[in-house]
Amino acid sequence: MSNNATEGTPLAANPLTRAVLEIDAYASGLGWDQPARLFALVDTARLRSQEPTLAEQLGLAGEEEAAAAGALTPIEQDELPEGAPLDEFLATIAWPDVITGCALTVERLMLPPSAEAAIPKGMDDASLSAWVAAHPERQEVRMTVAVLRDGARESAVRLRSKDTPSEVLTGGGLVPGLADALAATFEA
Fold it and tell me: What share of the chain is helix, strand, coil (3-state, %, to 5)?
């Protein structure tokens, strides 16, 4: 993945927002029903100066946009362990100092607030998942959440029913629980 603006991806002034939208566009190109994907975020200029061979492999050599102050390059990590709860997996991660931030893209089912009030009490996780999956108002979403070491956060949320780049919602506080879990990977 390079730091070029992907065709159809809106331009954003903030480097973190650009990185999140780039990851969202990448995940969108893979289609739906994909596993969660984890990305390291590295400072593009630092990557180009300290690891020119890797930067060239990522398609960053000679890119003027990549030289912009604060530009971030997402680097996809190995697949997440299958069947492991996401929160438990994230608790095992500690990033080296060279990593500026990290991002995760994950698909989930969500309910509108009006439906959340009807959730039966006392269900275990498996029962709750089945109940949400069968609910007529459920929405399939892909969430891309990123955090930086300095505390900055950004998210992109794409509904499967509105699967176009112009319908992607962005904001730092859209998925606070996941952002907190990602931020904790830098506290080790």
Answer: 35, 20, 40
